[in-house]
Write a structure and sequence with these properties.
Number of helices: 4
Radius of gyration: 18 Å
Largest sheet: none
Strand content: under 5%
Distance between the termini: 27 Å
Structural class: mainly alpha
Order of helices and strands: HHHH
Length: about 110
Amino acid sequence: MVDTARYRDLLEKRLSELHERLHEIDEALDSHQSRDWEELATEREGDEVLERMGSSGQVEIARIKAALDRMAEGEFGYCVSCGEEIAPERLDLVPYTPFCRNCADRRR
């Protein structure tokens, strides 16, 4: 039996961290006011990195929300593909994973 309360706490904490990080990224992207072309080019390179970080954060947020939905439905900790229980060691590493190790390996 999966300790959903423990994983819920982990997921909600991570979700909060990600929302904070995305807010900081948005602020950083909006803060550039340089008129110098060289500085603008450097800022744009930095913006591209920030945008990629923001995109990966949004993907992780979606995965966390899906895991929280599975908790609400009583399906958390079970593979969405085969229905087998996901190993606690796997959930400890990636608590939002919807797949057991075997199904995740098959999807690669």
